[in-house]
Amino acid sequence: MPQNQQFLLASRPQGQASVDNFSLVTSQTPPLQEGQVLVQHHYLSLDPYMRGRMNEGKSYTAPQPLGEVMIGGTVGQVVESRSPRFAVGDFVVGMGGWQLYSVVDGAPAGGLHKVDATRVPLSHYLGAVGMPGVTAWHGLLRIIEPRAGQTVVVSAASGAVGSAVGVLARERGCRVVGIAGGAAKCAYVKDELGFDDCIDYRAHADALSLSQALKTACPEGIDGHFENVGGMVLDAVMLRMNAFGRIAVCGMIAGYDGRPMPMAYPALILVQRLKVQGFIVSEHMEDWPPALKELGALVGSGRFSPRETVAEGLAAAPESFLGLLKGRNFGKQLVRLV
Amino acid sequence: MPQNQQFLLASRPQGQASVDNFSLVTSQTPPLQEGQVLVQHHYLSLDPYMRGRMNEGKSYTAPQPLGEVMIGGTVGQVVESRSPRFAVGDFVVGMGGWQLYSVVDGAPAGGLHKVDATRVPLSHYLGAVGMPGVTAWHGLLRIIEPRAGQTVVVSAASGAVGSAVGVLARERGCRVVGIAGGAAKCAYVKDELGFDDCIDYRAHADALSLSQALKTACPEGIDGHFENVGGMVLDAVMLRMNAFGRIAVCGMIAGYDGRPMPMAYPALILVQRLKVQGFIVSEHMEDWPPALKELGALVGSGRFSPRETVAEGLAAAPESFLGLLKGRNFGKQLVRLV
Questions:
Q1: I want to staple B98 with a disulfide (CB 3.0 to 4.6 A). Which of A91, A284, B70, B288 is the partner?
Q2: Is position A294 within any domain?
Q3: Considering only CB atoms, which chain B residues are within 8 Å of A265?
Q4: Residue B165, in any domain of the structure
């Protein structure tokens, strides 16, 4: 029964989230019941959706309960098993939460899945070959439905989701243009991910200025857009959308703090006959197998080299998470726990 | 060669449209060329889309050219024919424009269609059994895709499009709630069109107040919404949309004058996984035959009694059109020309 460390949600944010919203506690892991598995987490995933769960009321799903372990994806190793489906030493991915160990039901309902640590580095099962990658795949292929030769734009392009969107669109023969914050991220998006262009939104004071830059980067307009941010970026992109354009709405980071974040030009939905559609990847489980197959092959073959920012130790999780919400991470944000 | 009267677009509106944007001219109809037909218009249709065409630049389609006859749907009778496809006396619907007569190519490309004046009153071919009716049919069935028992809301509910949306949804077993301006329109929507409820938006100062009224009228939330207006009405409806709701965007009257009209709560697209989609009915010609068949049967059988506001004489067209943009019409706005 190893000693566990856990971050609980201590309070709900009033406006911006802060480190005070989390509390670190120490406990013993409970003895396993029949059918259960004890997993030691190697990596914890930090993702923007967690901010939505910290709020009370209507969001993606039920809010994160106060006083309970913060939810989160984890990849790790089975260290004790009373389940016939898992053996000690198995590498597994699941929703272990912000803690060093988790006790999980080994039955399918427990949501624990074995992964092959020799195929791709273990951490990628929380990124490009995990939930963020499947998110990219679903939004791109099920909502944007891009055709070769069309132009696809993605915001937060250097992030875990955005980078996968761009690579998957690139593989389908699209012109791919990213939007990211800062010259270093834009260089990575172009030079390492192979996007056709990338625009630094920080160089633009407003949507009209960003829209001018998009006009240059997308000389034939924009057919599909994958939105991870909202606000000014979405406004700027909408001004350049072609007729019958599709916008997959995956994230609205700018709005999580409760500030009003209107869409400036909704009449363009009519004028350009756009489809604007929101989605949550966990509601489309049928897409996980084909998505993980394609993404695993892309990463395994080296055609897609996802970038990671790795914080060291569970104690670093709150600060890393707040930095993620401000765009301080570069690629997939992880916390190494072993 | 009868004497014709025509309204030309004299100037583009700066802000609100005014009667000064139109000029009335008199001319002789030209002699028919081989294949042409001379149509005497009985009714001219006035529709919100015309306001968009009066602007320069990006709208639904190409702008209405200055100095040319205002575009518009017409129903009338063939008074002279050099086309084998039409005989004198035939009743026809087409895009004759704001004038007493039109000379039209009798070939299919001319867009002239014979109608049966004994089946439904002639004027309805410009309304419920014409373009507005097909608009309702497409947006409801192709974008909202309502199922029996679901709740459908439609704005401008007493209008030509809105009334058809409600009747078609009612026929499919939906709970149907209208939004209209004023007690008389709301009474018509409930008592004569058979909607389950109708809300007078003029009784509400802002979107939150209107949203409260929608909560009462839609106790199980809103699954589908047909938007003819935009602005505050759309904001209020979005606050009540259920998960996986669909919004068909058909009109944004509030925005045609160039005033900014933001969408207040776009984050709901993500939170509730909404689909928001704009469309123009003329781009979906495949839907016209099934739509006109169903709508003709509903009107012909008396299950749908569309309301009309009929102005007398071509000279009344500009004022009637401006009144339509302000919601002064009650049901389908027409101009009688004979």
A1: B70
A2: no
A3: 262
A4: yes
| Model ipTM value | 0.90
> Which residue shows structure tokens 């699954």?
B223
Q: How far is A254 from chain B (nearest CA, A)?
A: 9
Residue A7 lies in a domain: yes
Contact A275 B280 (CB under 8 A): no
Please, which residues 248-267 of chain B have a Cβ atom closer than 8 Å to chain A? 249-252, 255, 260-267
pTM of the model: 0.91
- The one-digit pLDDT tens for each residue of chain A (338 residues) are 789 999 999 999 988 899 999 999 999 999 999 999 999 999 999 998 899 899 887 555 678 999 999 999 999 999 999 999 999 999 999 999 999 999 999 999 899 999 999 889 999 999 999 999 999 999 999 999 999 999 999 999 999 999 999 999 999 999 999 999 999 999 999 999 999 999 999 999 999 999 999 999 999 999 999 999 999 999 999 999 999 999 999 988 655 555 668 999 999 999 899 999 999 998 999 999 999 999 999 999 999 999 999 999 999 999 999 999 888 889 999 999 99
A219 & A165 share domain: yes
For residue A135, give its domain range.
Answer: 131-282
| Nearest CB partner across the interface for B278, out of A265, A269, A280 | A269
Kindly report the nearest CA distance between residue B191 and chain A, in angstroms.
Answer: 31
Which of B230, B264, B269 lies nearest to residue A278, judging by beta carbons? Answer: B269
Question: Helix or strand or coil: residue A328?
Answer: coil
Indicate whether B328 and B265 sit together in one domain.
no
Is there a contact between B269 and A276 if contact means CB atoms under 8 Å apart? yes
The nearest CA of chain B is from the CA of A109 a distance in Å of: 24
Q: Min CA distance, B276 vs chain A (Å)?
A: 5
Q: Is B34 exposed, middle or buried (0-12, 13-18, 19+ CB in 10 A)?
A: exposed
Number of domains in chain B: 2
3-state helix, strand, coil in chain A (%, to 5): 35, 25, 40
- In this structure, are B248 and B163 located in the same domain? yes
A65 lies in some domain: yes
**A208 touches B: beta carbon within 8 Å:** no
- What is residue A183's three-state secondary structure? helix
Residue A331 to chain B, least CA–CA distance (Å): 22
Chain A positions touching B60 (Cβ under 8 A) are 270-271
Q: Is the dihedral of CA A227, A164, A49, B218 positive or negative?
A: positive
Domain of residue A63, CATH code: 3.90.180.10
Q: Which member of A251, A252, A263 has the closest CB to residue B262?
A: A263
Contact between B166 and B228 under an 8 Å Cβ cutoff? The reply is no
Cβ atoms of residues A46 and A72 within 8 Å:
yes
Which chain A residues touch B239 with a CB distance below 8 Å? none
Angle subtended by helix axes A131-138 and A160-171, to nearest 10: 50
Closest chain B residue to A143, measured at CA: B275
CA distances from B177 to A167, A314, B219 (A): 45, 52, 11
Same domain, B188 and B264: yes
